[in-house]
């Protein structure tokens, strides 16, 4: 029972740490007012990396051994553990999926930043079709919050490109 108590303590510490990661990932992001759409992709890449590292740790043999011992003794901490394991998996899948969809926009971001207003406007219909495709097909990114954030960043990039063009001309 002493070993079981120590293992349960360790799992409770992990549960607390995982809850903290999940809470932090759900908090509002503070971003500069003029940030471009590349930052959206970078955010989701960073989030994907964090959650994948966490999943790798959860799936490690050390953690699996501890969980299987606690399963054998029917520990009550496992209910919380399984719920958090599922939440981490969902968050990791969301980040991976969002990165995959946002990469389809990446081809626009570089040229968009260096374009003249005229060439930028030529790319807008294709860009908007890609945004529409993301909205229609992504299981996670098709919320009004995500779309508003993305369109705001695209607009910021367009404004910055026009400012640069005006200052150079």
TrEMBL record:
GO terms assigned for molecular function: dynein intermediate chain binding; dynein light intermediate chain binding
GO process terms (BP): microtubule-based movement
Superkingdom as given in the UniProt entry: Eukaryota
Domain Dynein heavy chain tail: 5-167
A Pfam family matched in the record: DHC_N1
One cellular-component annotation, GO: axonemal dynein complex
Protein name: DYH5 protein
Organism of this sequence: Alca torda (Razorbill)
Gene name as annotated: Dnah5_4
């Amino acid at each position: 029972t002493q070993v079981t108590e120590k293992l349960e303590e360790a799992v409770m510490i992990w549960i607390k740490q995982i809850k903290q990661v999940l809470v932090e990932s759900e908090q509002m992001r503070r971003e500069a007012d003029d940030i471009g759409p590349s930052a959206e992709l970078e955010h989701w890449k960073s989030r994907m990396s964090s959650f994948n590292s966490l999943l790798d740790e959860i799936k490690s043999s050390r953690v699996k051994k501890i969980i299987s011992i606690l399963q054998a003794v029917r520990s009550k901490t496992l209910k919380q553990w399984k719920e958090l394991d599922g939440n981490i998996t969902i968050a990791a899948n969301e980040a991976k999926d969002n990165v995959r969809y946002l990469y389809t926009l990446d081809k626009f971001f570089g040229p968009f930043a260096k374009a003249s207003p005229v060439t930028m406007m030529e790319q807008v219909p294709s860009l908007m079709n890609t945004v529409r495709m993301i909205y229609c097909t992504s299981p996670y990114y098709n919320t009004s919050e995500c779309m508003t954030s993305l369109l705001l960043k695209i607009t910021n990039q367009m404004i910055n490109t026009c400012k640069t063009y005006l200052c150079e001309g």
